[in-house]
């Protein structure tokens, strides 16, 4: 379909529909001046007829214009016609967090740090988001190192440093108790600690694979929260590490005054500390391979893990290659790049888990077989490709502990490389 078949507003084309809700429809659009892809939110003028509705839209636009941060969806433009209002937004092709379940804590922490980074900007501007949930947290793209983008500021509110919010808004299953109480008691007030409760709900859901508090009826939600918090298995060590349990237990306080404040949350060891490698339930307790050999540098770990990842699909047991890569990267998880690549390998391992051959001897055999396979001479292979095979073989062998036969094999490969220089 040519561009002329799409709806055009000013210098923007509205292409495929991405989603729709109560207040409008979001399209994948195109800025004809720059050829950049944008997300364009189209809001019917019929939805903003009342003064309070116009005020809410104006507030959303003003808040987004004042927020400029890599972890917050950017508002590029705002257009108004007789029948529609248009918000031209940053396009995020990676979807949102609502479809993610049973993530490792390491994976979750990577996202959590970026969510907190965005919330720091809101905190500095005295803004409460008021609708934090997985569906409002987008991924910039589909790559393993995609950035988190906080979105949908339609319910956000800027308050003065000493004032309190009093509107009953948000998504019930992620609402803090003090917001829930507003439905029955209009004298209730809340602060940014309501957003902190929502952060706890998101973290719990990403790791555990289910929402922390479920109720069929809104009236049952607060009793369910109280019951769940009194359940000794609610934050079970079967699913959460000790730092994570401490983090969530300090968030899930019904009394907001007892709840962890924003500064304390930012400094909590679960966020700042090096992610721990703990047994993952859906890997049946299997952890990363333990060997007596350690790499000397982070660069070695990155180099070898890249080769392992690329060659995993060519082995009969790709699970072992992915987990071997995790083992090599584990000491360097404080580095964002290493943490991101670790996450990719661990997620691949979960998809093709294989418990039957979980032995170091099996891993050594697989690597040796792959190294020999890479070094087999083929008269039809180009010289530069053969040298790359040799390089990958050496890289694989560097992941094994030193032994006489491995040293001899590496020396033989190096001699072959010299012959092709």
Q: What is the element string, with H for helices and E for strands?
A: EEEEHEEHEEEEHHHHHHHHHHHH
CATH topology annotation of the largest domain:
Transferase(Phosphotransferase), domain 1
Query: End-to-end span in angstroms?
Result: 52 Å
Number of domains: 3
**Basic shape:** globular
Q: Tell me the name of the CATH homologous superfamily of the largest domain.
A: Transferase(Phosphotransferase) domain 1
Strand ordering within the main sheet? 1-2-3-4-6-5
pLDDT < 50 runs, ≥5 residues: 161-166, 274-293, 354-361
Second rung of CATH, namely the architecture of the largest domain: Orthogonal Bundle
- Level of helix content? 40-55%
Number of helices: 14
Q: Which structural class matches the secondary elements?
A: alpha+beta
Strand content: 5-15%
Binding site for ATP: 41
GO cellular component, one term: membrane
GO biological process, one term: regulation of autophagy
Protein name: Protein kinase domain-containing protein
Give the secondary structure arrangement, pairings included.
Layout: E1 7-9, E2 12-20, E3 25-31, E4 36-44, H1 51-66, E5 75-80, E6 84-90, H2 105-124, E7 127-128, E8 137-139, E9 148-150, E10 157-158, H3 177-180, H4 193-208, H5 221-229, H6 242-251, H7 262-266, H8 269-272, H9 298-311, H10 318-329, H11 336-351, H12 360-375, H13 383-397, H14 404-419
Antiparallel strand pairs: 1-2, 2-3, 3-4, 4-6, 5-6, 7-10, 8-9
Helix pairs in contact: 2-4, 9-10, 10-11, 12-13, 13-14
